[in-house]
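Dear Dr. L.,

I hope this message finds you well. Following up on our conversation about the binding site, I have prepared a predicted three-dimensional model of the protein together with zinc ion. For your records, I am including the exact sequence and ligand specification that went into the calculation, followed by the structure tokens. Please feel free to forward this to your student if that is useful.
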Amino acid sequence: MTPSPTPAPGPARGADLVITGCTVLTHDQDERVVFREDAAIVVRDGVVDDVTSTAEAAGLAAGERIDARGQVAMPGLVNCHTHAPMVALRGLAEDLPTEEWFNDVVWPVESNLTEQDVESGARLACAEMIRGGVTCFADHYFAMDAVAAVVAECGMRAHLGQAYFSSQGDRGREESLEFALRHRGGAGGRITTALAPHAPYTVTDADLAATAELARAHGLPVHLHASENRDQADTSLARHGVTPIEVLERTGVLDTDVLIAHGTGILERDLPVLARARGRTAVASAPRGYLKFGWPTTTPVRALREIGVPVGLATDGAASNNSLDVWEAMALTALIQKSTTGDPRWLTSRQALHHATLQSAQAVGLAGQVGSIAPGRRADIVLVDLTGPHTQPVHDLAATLVHSARSGDVRTTIVDGRILMRDRELLTIDVPEVVEALGRRMPALLDRSHGRRIQEYDT
Ligand SMILES: [Zn+2]
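The resulting structure of the complex is given below.
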């Protein structure tokens, strides 16, 4: 950092950070993506103070400057549904159907989890996400105090929920609430929280109804899996005569602000239910896992958009994905939508960028705060290098970003005005140290000889 010796005239005080020479991805008043060339971003107190021209910003005193010529500045990506610590299980349960994946590998292994494993896993996950241009993630897991501590330390933004099953008794639900109240507004406001029942097939109607009550009483959102796949919707109909989405309605969960993970089993009959939900409802789509599990359908993005439900991009945990690459989720969402609708005009690159920015911010309850580079928004910004051979020439910048660029093209990642990665170098996490710590725990973590599971998968 080289502070300017003489403060420039004009503003009372210099900026904390000025990024110059870049093309900035902004939005117009109709939320359309607009690219502003040779632009500068001025950051003060963690907030975007101004988006101006490079010439205008030339004389501005700044604590730190980034010359971003050849790069695009875009809002940091949001991973709208993940289980960050599951990076520890990356590649452990391959080429299996959902039921065997849960019952034979993941849930037996998770019965060995310690708080230390969750912490190391979260740290590795945050390193991966920062490297991939993700500035915020919605996490749904166990021992979440450890994840909150890692978020505070590494500088990311996060929307955290302590997951629970009804098999844990009342305690699981109570702990989910205690966690949400304890950490709400934590890490200097970078942490927001949610109540996090696992799913309608592992949480009873009574527990879902109690959770909805608590959400309303405490002004908390709910984050859960629902209608993850078509099998779950069919089983719910056969057993209870209602779909998982209808379960959310009758238990009052749709009266709260709810983030639904996956929803690839959302049926035609669910659409009016979602349309009349009284709370703010959003769906997180993690398409890579659906392909891998061989699920017959994907999140019905087009139908959800027609009823005004935002669809945020996600990766789910790395045990199924196998990465936390939201960039890839963006490209896959565009491709799978074209393929499943049979319409090359849906979804366009600009629409994909709208999902990646404003809709993802809405999904995690941060509309108006992140998801856009504009005065007053938190300065969560990534700089993407488009000088590589695979991104040249640029005829359509939106298409270049969605279909040619990769997460590895992100050079710099900034959250709340703080640089977490500069020129590909992570500044807040020591990756070799984390990998070593995780490695030491592997034999004990992977032991399945005890025959225990934290839960049984039965759609
Ligand atoms: Zn999940």
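In brief: The first helix runs from residue 54 to 57.

With kind regards,
A. P.
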